[in-house]
Write a structure and sequence with these properties.
single chain, 0% strand, mainly alpha, 15 helices, globular
Length: 333
């Protein structure tokens, strides 16, 4: 493997670690921040601040970012993925736990397959991908069964049903934005694209907060230190590090493979909830975690092929093994 290939492999691993671990942590960070911030005020501050930081940095490096076409493309992506995706998750977490929210949007890979009609032939002819998605779905059911069997919040049943419906819409919106980004890339550096997407999502979230009357109930003087910490984590890690990793991965890897973060995120969310928030993990949840992870590994195995050099070595070993097996053994004297 060449140095360039090794460097690329390391970058891919780091990017996947970012969207797996950091985004798994954001569910708890959102829950903490919601103690002081209304959902769309929180989302607006998160996205707009992160986008502004990246935009100013990119301008200082000489990237103008003044193309209307690129702004339009990035605005569509940002509103679908961030405002419609993460923003709706923040709204849903008012009525369901952070763990339940992470589980609910783990349907992402299924929606990728359902909505990516262009690649249906590839997806449904690939046995490992189909089996991985089926196994992941079974694990999701087990996980959800173990989660909803405990009383986590005091919201009534109707609110919780609506919240799960909104979280489903969140997952669909995220997938639509990801597919649009894949097929309509803006002609700019990744960091500038990310900055514009975040800014557009922040403006859209602020507008929704205005329509919902969230600004009238928000008091900045009543924000707790924990909520400020949650917001800072969401800005710098969730919206800059992890989101840039996600957008970059969409350009170099299959969207279905990239979407497997929605399987890992619930695992991270539950473990952090148990370790930090002292949430209990039931046997069904643990079994669901194991089954989901098995599905992810199977899905990933279909997308990684050994290099030509490794394939040649495998063939050589196979030929040698066949030769040894077919060689008559000498009779002992």
């Amino acid at each position: 493997m060449s140095i360039s290939n090794t460097k690329f492999t390391i970058q891919v691993l780091i990017a996947f670690a970012s969207i797996y671990i950091i985004w798994g942590s954001t569910f708890l960070a959102i829950a903490i921040a919601l103690h002081s911030f209304p959902p769309f005020v929180l989302s607006g501050l998160r996205f707009f601040t992160a986008g502004l930081i990246l935009f100013v940095w990119q301008r200082s490096k000489g990237h103008k970012g003044n193309s209307f076409v690129n702004w339009r493309k990035n605005a569509i992506v940002g509103i679908l993925i961030l405002t419609g995706g993460s923003g709706l998750v923040a709204w849903g977490e008012q009525y369901v736990s952070s763990t339940e929210a992470a589980i609910a949007i783990a349907t992402g890979p299924f929606w990728f397959v359902a909505l990516d009609k262009k690649n249906w032939k590839h997806y449904f002819s690939n046995v490992p991908i189909v089996l991985g998605l089926i196994i992941g779905f079974i694990g999701l059911i087990l996980f959800l069964k173990g989660s909803v069997s405990t009383e986590n919040l005091n919201a009534n049943g109707t609110q919780r049903i609506i919240a799960f419906g909104v979280l489903t819409l969140s997952s669909i919106s995220w997938v639509l934005g990801s597919l649009y980004s894949k097929r309509n890339p803006a002609n700019q550096p990744t960091f500038m694209n990310t900055a514009q997407q975040l800014i557009a999502a922040g403006v859209a979230s602020f507008f929704i907060a205005l329509l919902k009357g969230e600004w009238q109930t928000f008091e900045v003087t009543e924000v707790t230190s924990g909520a400020w910490f949650g917001l800072a984590f969401l800005i710098f890690f969730g919206s800059i590090v992890a989101y840039m990793s996600y957008i970059w991965l969409l350009g170099v890897k299959d969207p279905v493979l990239v979407s497997t973060h929605t399987y890992i995120n619930p695992i991270v969310a539950v473990l952090l909830g148990w370790f930090i928030a002292n949430e209990q993990i039931g046997s069904n949840q643990l079994l669901g975690l194991f089954v989901i992870l098995s599905g992810v590994l199977l899905t990933n195995s279909a997308n990684y092929k050994p290099s030509k050099r490794v394939q040649v070595r495998i063939r050589r070993v196979w030929i040698l093994a066949k030769a040894l097996l077919n060689t008559p053994r000498s009779v002992a004297q």
